[in-house]
Amino acid sequence: MSEIEHTVQLIYASRIAKGCGPKDLEAILDVSRKNNPSIGVTGALCYSARGFLQCLEGSRAAVNALYRRIVQDERNEDITLISYEQVTERTFGQWSMAYVRADGVDGRILNKHKVEEDFDPFTVTPKQAIGLLRDMARERAAFLARQQKAE
To answer: Do 96 and 25 meet the contact criterion of CB atoms below 8 Å apart?
Structure first.
């Protein structure tokens, strides 16, 4: 079996624990972006005022181990698994961890996936979750490319 046959995609929702703030989120992102490439995990994280929506992709063993660490991390609360499936290709293969804030996303993306601007990640379907994260990451990549081109 090839590596692609063993690639899984896990999507979950969570809330940041009381007492945690922007610096904690920044630390989580920094660690993810530093460690994920070495374990072969890619993904995307969306923050809304009502919680996080995150997708992790990689080998079953790496994603399962990372998800166990996330569940045990006291900075996360109300962790809810939305989807876990084997995939033939990664959606976020170019991202160690794409990060977007829902309040900075083009409203057309939210409308396309039938979610409110201040969407609740705990209410999305698996199809909405992956579509929303994919389109948000594409928008973010296009923004970063335009910014880099302007420099």
So the answer is: no
Q: How confident is the model at residue 124 (pLDDT cuts 50, 70, 90)?
A: very high
pTM for the full predicted model: 0.89
For 52-67, the pLDDT digits (tens) are: 999 999 999 999 999 9
Q: Please, which residues have CB within 8 angstroms of residue 19's CB and are 6 or more apart in sequence? A: none
Rounded Cα distance between 119 and 134, Å, is: 16
CA within 13 Å, CB half, 66: 27
Quote the DSSP letter at residue 121: G
CATH code where residue 47 lies: 3.30.70.100
> What is the phi/psi pair of residue 76, to 5°?
-110, 145
Number of other residues whose CB lies within 10 A of the CB of residue 6:
13
Q: Is the pLDDT of residue 82 over 80?
A: yes
Give the rounded percent of residues in the chain with a pLDDT score beyond 90. 52
* Coil/strand/helix, residue 51: strand
DSSP string covering 85-110 = EE-SS-SSTT-SSEEEEGGGS-HHHH
Domain limits for position 43: 4-150
